[in-house]
From TrEMBL:
Cellular component terms per the entry's GO annotation: cytosol; eukaryotic translation elongation factor 1 complex
Subunit structure of this chain's protein: EF-1 is composed of 4 subunits: alpha, beta (1B-alpha=beta'), delta (1B-beta), and gamma (1B-gamma).
UniProt biased composition (Basic and acidic residues): 117-139
CDD domains registered for this protein in UniProt: EF1B
Origin species: Brassica oleracea (Wild cabbage)
Domain of life: Eukaryota
Protein name (record): Translation elongation factor EF1B beta/delta subunit guanine nucleotide exchange domain-containing protein
């Protein structure tokens, strides 16, 4: 919505700015904008202490402009019909269409080049954005399995070959050993490391280790230990 001020060279005009700035820092929005610069240019001098909001705002805009224009100013006095003919109303309409606002921003840089602090902050924001786009590394787990044969006549060497022949992304077989169970039967205990998002131990057992042709040697598989790495 457009904001309109009239007769900013008069006390009545400054009063309208004072009332508008009650509870605000800038004319529109929460940052210095072209609106502030236009109103600042229309106010002939710093408002008196009778207008604390307008006075504070005036100093704030002046401070920003001083940083953008570091040259030494000697002070100028500008005469015109606005000051000499009160009957002539000077109306400042701040309605800005998006395209016009974009043109103003392109034509005039009020704040000069970025400071080192601003550049560093911008770089940190960009780095933070890139970090959020990176896929999170999946966790890993260490698993100990017991692989049991059908009987004492099962070829345990073949059994272990069947186990280690199972390959898939995120699966790494580790150390193994044969452990006596009784009646001449031995079971295979084997370590494996898995990437949690890629390998499901239950799926590994049901769809690979205990299905054909591996079930010729393997009767069952149990998970003895499962630890996150």
């Amino acid at each position: 919505m457009a904001i309109t001020f009239s007769d900013l060279h008069t006390e009545e005009g400054v009063k309208s700015v004072e009332e508008h700035l009650a509870g605000k820092t800038y004319i529109s929005g929460d940052q210095l904008s072209v609106d502030d610069v236009k109103v600042y240019a229309a106010v002939s001098e710093k408002p008196s202490d009778a207008f604390p909001n307008a006075s504070r705002w005036y100093d704030c805009v002046a401070s920003h402009l001083a940083k953008s224009f570091p040259g030494k100013a000697v002070g100028v006095s500008i005469g015109g019909s606005a000051a000499s003919a009160p009957a002539q109303a000077e109306e400042l309409c701040l309605e800005q269409a998006p395209a016009a606002a974009a043109d103003d921003d392109d034509d005039m840089d009020l704040f000069g080049d970025e400071t080192e602090e601003e550049k560093k902050a911008a770089e940190e924001r960009e780095a933070a954005k890139k970090d959020t786009k990176k896929p999170k590394e999946s966790g890993k787990s260490s698993v100990l399995m017991e692989v049991k044969p059908w009987d004492d006549e099962t070829d345990m060497k073949k059994l272990e070959e069947c186990v280690r022949a199972v390959e898939m992304p995120g699966l790494l077989w580790g150390a193994s050993k044969l452990v006596p169970v009784g009646y001449g039967i031995k079971k295979l205990t084997i370590m494996l490391t898995i990437v949690d998002d890629l390998v499901s131990p239950d799926n590994l057992i049901e769809d690979y280790l205990t299905c054909e042709p591996n079930n010729e040697y393997i009767q069952s598989v149990d998970i003895v230990a499962f630890n996150k790495i």
